[in-house]
Amino acid sequence: MSDKYDVVVIGAGPGGYVAAIRAAQLGLKTACVEKWISKEGKPVLGGTCLNVGCIPSKALLEASHKYHEAKHDFADLGIEAKDVKMDVKKMVARKDKIVTQLTGGIAMLFKANGVTAYEGTGKLQAGKKVEVTSHDGKTQTIEAENVIIASGSVPVEIPSAPLTEGVIVDSTGALEITETPKRMGVIGGGVIGLELGSVWKRLGSEVTVFEAMDSFLAAVDQQIAKDVKKSMTKQGLEIELGARVTSTEIKGKEVEVTYTDSKGEHKKTFDKLVVCVGRKPYTQGVLADDSGVSLDERGFIFVDDQCRTEAPGVYAIGDVVRGPMLAHKASEEGIMVADIIAGHKPEMNYDAIPNVIYTFPEVAWVGKTEEELKASGTPYKSGVFPFSAIGRAMANNCTEGMVKILAHEETDRVLGMHIFGQNAGEMIHNGVIALEFASSAEDLALTCFAHPTLSEAVHEAALAVDGHAIHMANKKKRK
């Protein structure tokens, strides 16, 4: 006799655990299956994001930034800090403590909301049955009126750089390094590569980033990307564009990397090599042949706009479906699906999902880039305002970057917002809300922003869309 639930969620990452909690809040009998095992060998919730992704990487980014700031920037503020040192092992231990606190918090939320947690691997079978295989190999079957697949993603491995313990690692392994390597190579100049490269550069490593594409941060508005590359290079990251790693060779405790670019073949030796070339959906062992769920040509689970699969009553969310692989996107999809199951009529605006790169300064954007608008032939206008003209940025000793707002030429509707600067990840929600409510640039321009704040750059950029910026010489005449 199997257990029966209104909702069974496979995966307890930011998509799965949020979906489970929301479903339980709506009065649905809910279970969640999770196979993750901690470094201590204990079952834990939270998936990649909490255990080896978003949260631990931000803990290292924050610690390394504070160290770098104390060592190099405090003097500008009149603060004398001599012999500043970083205890890398203590930094990593703090990261682990934060992870433990947050994953334990999810367990308490499950208990408080009445979500039943199953430890083990979940596999969807025909008829909305989920086979759960525990870590000791025992199996049981649970039945559901509805199933939500939220099994997440895993790092992509490449044949030219096979993972080798202690020398060639993926993003997970990079979070466990306890001594600052003298030389570090990073394959992949995307979000994860730049963030991890920044951490170890701040701590003293010589960091080289290999990016196979000729363009830098191709998904980012290129006016912003140009300034980001300039900043990263100034910070000491060696960024090789159009550089394709063709092979690696382990030599003792070092790794020799062979790569090609427009100038030919080159070799470079590192103490650590981090592979960050992207992630792929994790569906291995999740779907039985008779589950009724199909994959698209890229290996993602095929779903409609409301995350329904081809099997009635079965949904899929997060990294296993189309769209950006972002924790907050997964969470919102989880809430939407739980609401649909409960009989509500929610909608999700995929055009208003923010992206953030947590380097310093941060990079954040939402909506369309200027390149996308040009390619689609959309008439647009733009307003740009630099942080160098913002009083709070000067006081904070961080004047790098800008805010850029793109609006429709005819309707003035905000089409995109792009920010490079301190706390960009916090400020981008001005743009998210503007897109969600179909605001115009004038709406933002007429909004009162507190002074002195960094967000005043958003206000000025909105004013600049029509040439009305106050703290910048304007080429356009006020109408």
Automatic annotation (TrEMBL):
The keyword Glycosyltransferase does not apply. Disulfide bonds join 49-54. GO terms for molecular function: dihydrolipoyl dehydrogenase (NADH) activity; flavin adenine dinucleotide binding. InterPro entries: Class-I_Pyr_Nuc-Dis_Oxidored, FAD/NAD-bd_sf, FAD/NAD-binding_dom, FAD/NAD-linked_Rdtase_dimer_sf, Lipoamide_DH, Pyr_nuc-diS_OxRdtase, Pyr_nucl-diS_OxRdtase_dimer, Pyr_OxRdtase_I_AS. One of its GO terms (biological process) is 2-oxoglutarate metabolic process. FAD binds at residues 58, 122, 319, 325-328. It is found in: Cytoplasm. Residues 5-334 form the FAD/NAD(P)-binding domain. Its cofactor is FAD. The active site is at 451 (proton acceptor). Coiled coil: none annotated. It is an enzyme of class 1 (oxidoreductase). PROSITE patterns: PYRIDINE_REDOX_1 (PS00076). It catalyses: N(6)-[(R)-dihydrolipoyl]-L-lysyl-[protein] + NAD(+) = N(6)-[(R)-lipoyl]-L-lysyl-[protein] + NADH + H(+). Residues 353-462 form the Pyridine nucleotide-disulphide oxidoreductase dimerisation domain. Binds 1 FAD per subunit. Its main location: cytoplasm. Keywords: Cytoplasm, Disulfide bond, FAD, Flavoprotein, NAD, Nucleotide-binding, Oxidoreductase, Redox-active center. GO terms for cellular component: cytoplasm. Its EC number is 1.8.1.4. Belongs to the class-I pyridine nucleotide-disulfide oxidoreductase family. This is Dihydrolipoyl dehydrogenase. It comes from Marinospirillum celere. The lineage of its organism: Bacteria, Pseudomonadati, Pseudomonadota, Gammaproteobacteria, Oceanospirillales.
